[in-house]
Amino acid sequence: MITETMITGENLQADQAAVEAYLKHVQKRRSIRKLADGPVSDETIRTILEAGRWSPSSGNSQPARIVLVKERHNELWEFIERALRTKLQGAQLERALDRLPGYRAGIFSLIFYEDTTIANNLPPGIDPKIWKSFAIQAMGMTQINVWNGIAAAGLATSNQHVNLQMEEELRSFLGVPATWDSYSIFPIGYPAETPQEGVRRAYEDIIFFEHGPSS
Question: Per-residue confidence at 195, pLDDT binned at 50, 70, 90?
C-alpha cells in the first residue's frame, strides 16, 4: 500500500534489519543437487511462485512463465532419464544419470519458460536486440527471486539445463506452446547434502565507488 509518507518522502529511514535478514537468505542460497522429500504446504509453494510473479521486467512486460510439476514430479524425471539416454552417450550420459536420483528424490520441480511473443512484440522505436536483452534480464531476475524464496523457505534447488537437450520432447510432455522457450529446471526439495562453502571474491574486487579500477 502506498502511503502519504512514501509519496512525500517524510521521515524516511532505510530498514537495516530487513536488508540484513534478506542477505541471510541470499547467502543461504546454494546449488544443492541431492534432495530429500518432505512436507511442503501449497501456501508455501504459492508464496515462492509469487516471488517470481512480482519480479521486475522492462515496461512491465512480464515474459516469464513457470510450470509447476508436483503430482508428476517422479514421472517428469523418469521422462527426462529416458530422453537423456537417447540424446547423450559415454561419460556425458553417465554424469547426467548419476545426478538424476538426487533431483527425483525432491518434492516438486519448476520449469522456467520465456513467452517469446512478448520479446517479439517490441514497443515502437526500440532496437529488437535491446528489447530481447530486456526479456533475458527479466527471466534472470525471476529465477533468482524464486531461488531466494526457496532458500528462505528452508528448501533447496539447483539450476539445471537438461531441458536444452530435449526442448521439443519436454514441450510435448508439459503441453506448453511452441512460442515458449525453456530456460532451465529447478528440482526442489529439502537439502540432503552439505554444500561446499561458497567462495566469493573480496568486496573490494567487486564493488567500486564513483569510478572503475582504471580511473
Answer: confident
